[in-house]
Amino acid sequence: xSIDVKVPGLPESIADAEVLSWHKKVxxxxxxxxxxxxxxxxxxxxxxxxxxxxxxxxxxxxQGAIVVAEQVLAVLKEADKKDKLSHNVVEKKTAPVxxxxxxxxxxxxxxxxxxxxxxxxSKQISGSGRGGRIxxxxxxxxxxxxxxxxxxxxKVVSEKQKIELPADAAGRIEKRVPMTRLRARxxxxxxxxxxNAAILTTFNEVNMQPVMDLRKKxxxxxxxxxQVKLGFMSFFIKAxxxxxxxxxxxxxxxxxxxxxxxxxxxxxxxxxxxxGLVVPVIRNADQLSLAQIEQAIIDYAAKAxxxxxxxxxxxxxxxxxxxxxxxxxxxxxxxxxxxxxxILGMHKIQMRPVVEGENIVARPMMYLALSYDHRIIDxxxxxxxxxxxxxxxxxxxxxxxxx
Length: 403
Known about the structure:
The protein is built from 11 helices and 21 strands. By secondary structure, the protein is of the alpha+beta class.
Protein backbone atom coordinates (compact mmCIF):
# COMPACT_ATOMS: atom_id res chain seq x y z
CA UNK A 1 0.00 0.00 0.00
CA SER A 2 1.35 3.43 -0.95
CA ILE A 3 1.11 6.55 1.19
CA ASP A 4 1.05 10.09 -0.16
CA VAL A 5 3.11 12.72 1.66
CA LYS A 6 1.34 16.04 1.11
CA VAL A 7 2.04 19.72 1.67
CA PRO A 8 0.47 20.67 5.01
CA GLY A 9 -2.39 23.15 5.13
CA LEU A 10 -1.25 26.74 4.62
CA PRO A 11 -2.91 29.83 6.12
CA GLU A 12 -5.08 31.98 3.85
CA SER A 13 -2.36 34.64 3.70
CA ILE A 14 0.10 32.16 2.14
CA ALA A 15 -0.66 30.98 -1.39
CA ASP A 16 2.22 28.58 -2.00
CA ALA A 17 5.60 27.35 -0.84
CA GLU A 18 8.93 26.24 -2.29
CA VAL A 19 10.55 22.84 -1.75
CA LEU A 20 13.72 23.79 0.10
CA SER A 21 15.62 20.56 0.78
CA TRP A 22 15.06 16.80 1.03
CA HIS A 23 16.44 14.96 4.05
CA LYS A 24 15.83 11.51 2.54
CA LYS A 25 16.41 9.92 -0.86
CA VAL A 26 14.49 7.29 -2.79
CA UNK A 27 14.94 3.87 -1.19
CA UNK A 28 15.49 5.20 2.35
CA UNK A 29 13.47 3.83 5.23
CA UNK A 30 11.70 6.52 7.26
CA UNK A 31 10.01 6.39 10.61
CA UNK A 32 6.75 8.09 11.47
CA UNK A 33 7.23 11.80 12.28
CA UNK A 34 10.78 11.75 10.92
CA UNK A 35 11.41 14.89 8.85
CA UNK A 36 11.35 14.13 5.12
CA UNK A 37 11.58 17.56 3.53
CA UNK A 38 11.64 21.28 4.35
CA UNK A 39 9.40 23.68 2.46
CA UNK A 40 9.80 27.45 2.59
CA UNK A 41 6.89 29.89 2.65
CA UNK A 42 7.28 33.64 2.52
CA UNK A 43 7.28 33.65 6.32
CA UNK A 44 8.82 30.48 7.73
CA UNK A 45 10.39 27.13 6.90
CA UNK A 46 8.03 24.21 7.57
CA UNK A 47 9.09 20.65 8.36
CA UNK A 48 7.09 17.95 6.57
CA UNK A 49 7.26 14.67 8.53
CA UNK A 50 6.51 11.15 7.41
CA UNK A 51 2.88 10.26 8.20
CA UNK A 52 3.93 6.71 9.16
CA UNK A 53 6.76 4.19 8.84
CA UNK A 54 7.62 3.37 5.26
CA UNK A 55 10.11 3.34 2.41
CA UNK A 56 10.46 6.42 0.20
CA UNK A 57 9.73 5.13 -3.31
CA UNK A 58 9.14 8.38 -5.20
CA UNK A 59 9.96 12.08 -4.84
CA UNK A 60 7.23 13.91 -6.77
CA UNK A 61 8.41 17.48 -6.18
CA UNK A 62 12.12 18.18 -6.51
CA GLN A 63 14.06 20.87 -4.70
CA GLY A 64 13.02 24.31 -5.95
CA ALA A 65 9.51 23.27 -7.00
CA ILE A 66 6.60 25.57 -6.12
CA VAL A 67 3.80 23.71 -4.34
CA VAL A 68 0.41 24.47 -2.80
CA ALA A 69 -1.49 23.05 0.16
CA GLU A 70 -2.41 19.35 -0.08
CA GLN A 71 -0.20 18.82 -3.14
CA VAL A 72 1.64 15.47 -3.14
CA LEU A 73 5.35 15.82 -2.36
CA ALA A 74 6.39 12.18 -2.24
CA VAL A 75 5.11 8.61 -2.07
CA LEU A 76 5.96 6.05 0.60
CA LYS A 77 5.47 2.31 0.56
CA GLU A 78 3.93 1.13 3.82
CA ALA A 79 6.52 -0.72 5.90
CA ASP A 80 5.88 -4.31 6.92
CA LYS A 81 7.64 -6.29 9.65
CA LYS A 82 10.30 -7.48 7.24
CA ASP A 83 11.14 -3.90 6.25
CA LYS A 84 11.43 -2.85 9.87
CA LEU A 85 13.67 -5.75 10.79
CA SER A 86 15.91 -5.25 7.77
CA HIS A 87 16.44 -1.63 8.71
CA ASN A 88 16.85 -2.34 12.41
CA VAL A 89 14.05 -0.01 13.42
CA VAL A 90 11.94 -2.26 15.64
CA GLU A 91 10.18 0.11 18.02
CA LYS A 92 10.77 -0.41 21.71
CA LYS A 93 7.66 -0.03 23.86
CA THR A 94 8.93 2.11 26.71
CA ALA A 95 7.61 4.92 28.84
CA PRO A 96 5.71 7.69 27.05
CA VAL A 97 8.61 10.11 27.52
CA UNK A 98 11.80 8.42 26.37
CA UNK A 99 15.16 9.65 27.59
CA UNK A 100 18.64 8.87 26.27
CA UNK A 101 21.43 8.36 28.75
CA UNK A 102 24.87 9.06 27.24
CA UNK A 103 27.88 9.03 29.55
CA UNK A 104 25.64 9.71 32.55
CA UNK A 105 24.14 12.78 30.86
CA UNK A 106 20.37 12.43 30.39
CA UNK A 107 19.15 14.04 27.16
CA UNK A 108 15.52 14.28 26.06
CA UNK A 109 14.82 13.09 22.48
CA UNK A 110 13.94 16.57 21.16
CA UNK A 111 17.15 17.99 22.63
CA UNK A 112 19.24 15.16 21.20
CA UNK A 113 17.76 15.65 17.74
CA UNK A 114 18.55 19.39 17.77
CA UNK A 115 22.07 18.73 19.07
CA UNK A 116 22.67 16.26 16.25
CA UNK A 117 21.41 18.77 13.68
CA UNK A 118 23.74 21.45 15.02
CA UNK A 119 26.69 19.12 15.80
CA UNK A 120 26.73 20.08 19.47
CA UNK A 121 28.56 17.94 22.03
CA SER A 122 26.57 17.19 25.17
CA LYS A 123 29.54 18.40 27.25
CA GLN A 124 28.92 21.92 25.91
CA ILE A 125 25.39 22.07 27.33
CA SER A 126 24.44 22.69 30.93
CA GLY A 127 21.16 20.87 31.65
CA SER A 128 18.46 22.67 33.63
CA GLY A 129 16.08 19.74 33.95
CA ARG A 130 15.62 17.47 36.93
CA GLY A 131 18.89 15.81 37.82
CA GLY A 132 20.77 17.93 35.28
CA ARG A 133 19.05 16.44 32.25
CA ILE A 134 19.41 18.40 29.03
CA UNK A 135 16.15 19.82 27.66
CA UNK A 136 15.45 21.26 24.22
CA UNK A 137 15.22 24.70 25.86
CA UNK A 138 18.80 24.30 27.12
CA UNK A 139 20.02 23.65 23.57
CA UNK A 140 18.09 26.63 22.20
CA UNK A 141 19.53 28.84 24.94
CA UNK A 142 23.06 27.63 24.11
CA UNK A 143 22.56 28.36 20.41
CA UNK A 144 21.31 31.86 21.20
CA UNK A 145 24.26 32.61 23.47
CA UNK A 146 26.63 31.42 20.75
CA UNK A 147 24.97 33.80 18.31
CA UNK A 148 25.02 36.73 20.71
CA UNK A 149 28.70 36.17 21.46
CA UNK A 150 29.62 36.85 17.85
CA UNK A 151 28.21 40.25 16.87
CA UNK A 152 30.57 40.43 13.92
CA UNK A 153 29.30 37.25 12.31
CA UNK A 154 27.42 39.02 9.51
CA LYS A 155 30.49 41.04 8.60
CA VAL A 156 32.63 37.91 8.45
CA VAL A 157 30.06 36.14 6.25
CA SER A 158 29.92 39.17 3.97
CA GLU A 159 33.70 39.24 3.55
CA LYS A 160 33.75 35.52 2.84
CA GLN A 161 31.13 35.94 0.14
CA LYS A 162 33.19 38.68 -1.47
CA ILE A 163 36.19 36.38 -1.68
CA GLU A 164 34.18 33.54 -3.21
CA LEU A 165 32.46 35.66 -5.88
CA PRO A 166 33.63 34.91 -9.41
CA ALA A 167 35.43 37.61 -11.37
CA ASP A 168 35.14 38.40 -15.08
CA ALA A 169 38.07 38.89 -17.48
CA ALA A 170 38.57 42.44 -16.21
CA GLY A 171 38.76 41.19 -12.63
CA ARG A 172 35.46 42.80 -11.64
CA ILE A 173 33.28 40.88 -9.22
CA GLU A 174 29.58 40.26 -9.82
CA LYS A 175 27.17 37.53 -8.84
CA ARG A 176 23.43 37.18 -9.43
CA VAL A 177 21.35 35.10 -7.01
CA PRO A 178 17.56 34.86 -6.67
CA MET A 179 15.89 36.38 -3.61
CA THR A 180 14.72 33.92 -0.99
CA ARG A 181 10.97 33.82 -0.57
CA LEU A 182 11.32 35.47 2.83
CA ARG A 183 13.49 38.29 1.44
CA ALA A 184 11.05 38.86 -1.43
CA ARG A 185 8.10 38.94 0.97
CA UNK A 186 9.85 41.39 3.31
CA UNK A 187 10.64 43.64 0.34
CA UNK A 188 7.01 43.48 -0.78
CA UNK A 189 5.61 44.30 2.66
CA UNK A 190 8.01 47.19 3.26
CA UNK A 191 7.18 48.69 -0.11
CA UNK A 192 3.46 48.29 0.58
CA UNK A 193 3.92 50.03 3.93
CA UNK A 194 5.51 53.05 2.28
CA UNK A 195 2.84 53.18 -0.43
CA ASN A 196 -0.21 52.61 1.78
CA ALA A 197 0.61 54.48 5.00
CA ALA A 198 1.50 58.08 5.80
CA ILE A 199 4.74 57.25 7.64
CA LEU A 200 6.31 59.94 9.77
CA THR A 201 9.14 59.60 12.30
CA THR A 202 9.74 61.54 15.48
CA PHE A 203 12.83 61.34 17.70
CA ASN A 204 13.91 61.68 21.30
CA GLU A 205 16.82 60.53 23.43
CA VAL A 206 16.96 58.70 26.72
CA ASN A 207 19.54 58.59 29.49
CA MET A 208 20.13 54.89 30.06
CA GLN A 209 22.07 55.34 33.30
CA PRO A 210 19.13 54.50 35.63
CA VAL A 211 18.36 51.26 33.79
CA MET A 212 22.05 50.35 33.63
CA ASP A 213 22.43 50.98 37.37
CA LEU A 214 19.39 48.83 38.09
CA ARG A 215 20.73 46.00 35.92
CA LYS A 216 24.15 46.20 37.54
CA LYS A 217 22.63 46.04 41.02
CA UNK A 218 20.33 43.10 40.43
CA UNK A 219 21.70 41.18 37.43
CA UNK A 220 23.43 38.45 39.45
CA UNK A 221 20.45 37.82 41.73
CA UNK A 222 18.10 37.97 38.74
CA UNK A 223 20.09 35.41 36.73
CA UNK A 224 20.48 33.14 39.74
CA UNK A 225 16.75 33.08 40.40
CA UNK A 226 15.40 32.96 36.84
CA GLN A 227 18.29 31.31 34.91
CA VAL A 228 18.20 34.11 32.35
CA LYS A 229 20.15 37.34 31.99
CA LEU A 230 18.50 40.70 32.59
CA GLY A 231 18.75 42.61 29.32
CA PHE A 232 17.59 45.99 28.06
CA MET A 233 14.78 44.76 25.82
CA SER A 234 12.50 43.69 28.67
CA PHE A 235 12.72 47.21 30.16
CA PHE A 236 11.87 48.72 26.79
CA ILE A 237 8.91 46.41 26.24
CA LYS A 238 7.52 47.21 29.69
CA ALA A 239 8.06 50.94 29.12
CA UNK A 240 6.45 50.77 25.66
CA UNK A 241 3.39 49.05 27.14
CA UNK A 242 3.02 51.82 29.73
CA UNK A 243 3.16 54.41 26.94
CA UNK A 244 0.69 52.44 24.79
CA UNK A 245 -1.78 52.36 27.68
CA UNK A 246 -1.71 56.16 27.77
CA UNK A 247 -1.87 56.52 23.99
CA UNK A 248 -3.97 53.58 22.70
CA UNK A 249 -4.06 54.92 19.14
CA UNK A 250 -0.37 53.97 18.78
CA UNK A 251 -1.44 50.38 19.55
CA UNK A 252 -4.28 50.52 17.00
CA UNK A 253 -4.51 49.64 13.31
CA UNK A 254 -6.56 50.64 10.28
CA UNK A 255 -8.98 48.18 8.67
CA UNK A 256 -10.66 49.81 5.67
CA UNK A 257 -12.43 52.87 7.02
CA UNK A 258 -12.30 51.63 10.61
CA UNK A 259 -9.77 52.13 13.38
CA UNK A 260 -9.27 48.93 15.38
CA UNK A 261 -8.21 49.57 18.98
CA UNK A 262 -6.51 46.57 20.55
CA UNK A 263 -7.15 45.89 24.22
CA UNK A 264 -4.09 43.64 24.41
CA UNK A 265 -0.36 44.13 23.89
CA UNK A 266 1.29 41.69 21.49
CA UNK A 267 4.82 42.99 21.01
CA UNK A 268 6.71 42.17 17.82
CA UNK A 269 10.50 42.02 18.23
CA UNK A 270 12.47 42.35 14.99
CA UNK A 271 15.15 39.65 14.76
CA UNK A 272 17.87 39.34 12.13
CA UNK A 273 18.43 35.79 10.89
CA UNK A 274 20.39 34.15 8.08
CA UNK A 275 17.21 34.08 6.02
CA GLY A 276 16.41 37.75 6.59
CA LEU A 277 14.39 39.92 8.96
CA VAL A 278 11.64 38.22 10.95
CA VAL A 279 9.35 39.62 13.62
CA PRO A 280 8.20 37.01 16.17
CA VAL A 281 5.46 38.16 18.53
CA ILE A 282 5.49 38.10 22.34
CA ARG A 283 1.79 37.77 23.15
CA ASN A 284 0.09 39.43 26.12
CA ALA A 285 3.42 40.99 27.06
CA ASP A 286 1.71 43.18 29.66
CA GLN A 287 0.99 40.03 31.68
CA LEU A 288 4.59 38.79 31.62
CA SER A 289 7.40 39.46 34.08
CA LEU A 290 10.78 40.80 33.00
CA ALA A 291 12.20 37.27 33.27
CA GLN A 292 9.44 35.81 31.10
CA ILE A 293 10.00 38.47 28.45
CA GLU A 294 13.75 37.88 28.43
CA GLN A 295 13.23 34.12 28.10
CA ALA A 296 10.77 34.62 25.24
CA ILE A 297 13.29 36.81 23.39
CA ILE A 298 16.07 34.23 23.86
CA ASP A 299 13.85 31.40 22.64
CA TYR A 300 12.71 33.35 19.58
CA ALA A 301 16.26 34.38 18.69
CA ALA A 302 17.42 30.77 18.87
CA LYS A 303 14.48 29.58 16.78
CA ALA A 304 15.15 32.30 14.20
CA UNK A 305 18.82 31.31 13.89
CA UNK A 306 17.94 27.63 13.53
CA UNK A 307 15.12 28.38 11.05
CA UNK A 308 12.45 26.85 13.30
CA UNK A 309 10.04 29.75 13.81
CA UNK A 310 6.44 28.68 13.27
CA UNK A 311 3.70 30.62 11.49
CA UNK A 312 2.02 31.16 14.83
CA UNK A 313 5.19 32.78 16.18
CA UNK A 314 5.05 35.44 13.43
CA UNK A 315 1.34 36.17 13.14
CA UNK A 316 -0.37 39.16 14.71
CA UNK A 317 1.36 41.82 16.76
CA UNK A 318 0.09 45.27 17.70
CA UNK A 319 3.40 47.14 17.94
CA UNK A 320 7.02 46.39 16.98
CA UNK A 321 10.42 47.12 18.51
CA UNK A 322 13.57 47.05 16.38
CA UNK A 323 17.00 47.27 18.00
CA UNK A 324 19.49 48.39 15.37
CA UNK A 325 21.80 49.47 18.17
CA UNK A 326 23.17 45.93 18.54
CA UNK A 327 24.73 46.38 15.08
CA UNK A 328 26.07 49.86 15.87
CA UNK A 329 23.27 52.00 14.39
CA UNK A 330 23.24 55.53 15.82
CA UNK A 331 19.99 56.71 14.22
CA UNK A 332 17.42 55.36 11.76
CA UNK A 333 13.82 55.75 10.60
CA UNK A 334 12.21 52.30 10.90
CA UNK A 335 9.43 51.30 8.48
CA UNK A 336 6.04 50.18 9.77
CA UNK A 337 5.15 46.50 9.99
CA UNK A 338 1.60 46.49 8.46
CA UNK A 339 -1.10 46.59 9.66
CA UNK A 340 0.52 48.04 12.78
CA UNK A 341 0.58 51.80 13.17
CA UNK A 342 3.77 52.21 15.20
CA ILE A 343 7.31 50.88 15.44
CA LEU A 344 10.07 51.89 17.85
CA GLY A 345 13.67 52.07 16.68
CA MET A 346 16.32 51.61 19.39
CA HIS A 347 19.92 52.59 18.77
CA LYS A 348 23.44 52.32 20.10
CA ILE A 349 24.10 53.48 23.65
CA GLN A 350 26.95 55.97 23.59
CA MET A 351 28.51 58.27 26.17
CA ARG A 352 27.61 61.85 25.27
CA PRO A 353 27.86 65.21 27.07
CA VAL A 354 24.53 66.38 28.48
CA VAL A 355 23.54 69.35 30.61
CA GLU A 356 22.20 68.58 34.09
CA GLY A 357 21.38 71.75 35.99
CA GLU A 358 24.37 73.99 35.38
CA ASN A 359 26.83 71.14 34.79
CA ILE A 360 27.92 69.27 31.69
CA VAL A 361 28.29 65.56 32.42
CA ALA A 362 28.86 62.39 30.40
CA ARG A 363 25.90 60.03 30.26
CA PRO A 364 25.10 56.81 28.34
CA MET A 365 22.54 58.12 25.85
CA MET A 366 20.37 56.37 23.28
CA TYR A 367 18.41 57.92 20.43
CA LEU A 368 14.84 56.66 20.06
CA ALA A 369 12.85 56.83 16.82
CA LEU A 370 9.09 56.31 16.59
CA SER A 371 7.75 55.80 13.08
CA TYR A 372 3.97 56.03 12.98
CA ASP A 373 1.01 56.16 10.62
CA HIS A 374 0.02 59.81 10.49
CA ARG A 375 -3.42 58.84 9.20
CA ILE A 376 -4.55 57.92 12.71
CA ILE A 377 -1.75 59.13 15.00
CA ASP A 378 -1.25 62.87 15.43
CA UNK A 379 2.18 64.39 15.96
CA UNK A 380 1.20 65.41 19.47
CA UNK A 381 0.39 61.82 20.43
CA UNK A 382 3.61 60.52 18.87
CA UNK A 383 5.77 63.06 20.69
CA UNK A 384 4.01 62.47 24.03
CA UNK A 385 4.32 58.72 23.53
CA UNK A 386 8.11 59.05 23.27
CA UNK A 387 8.23 61.43 26.24
CA UNK A 388 6.27 58.90 28.32
CA UNK A 389 8.66 56.17 27.20
CA UNK A 390 11.66 58.35 28.07
CA UNK A 391 10.26 59.15 31.53
CA UNK A 392 9.62 55.48 32.28
CA UNK A 393 13.15 54.44 31.32
CA UNK A 394 14.87 57.31 33.13
CA UNK A 395 12.91 56.49 36.27
CA UNK A 396 12.13 52.73 36.16
CA UNK A 397 10.33 52.95 39.50
CA UNK A 398 7.48 54.59 37.58
CA UNK A 399 6.69 51.24 35.94
CA UNK A 400 6.61 49.52 39.31
CA UNK A 401 4.30 51.94 41.11
CA UNK A 402 2.26 52.78 38.00
CA UNK A 403 2.68 56.53 37.48
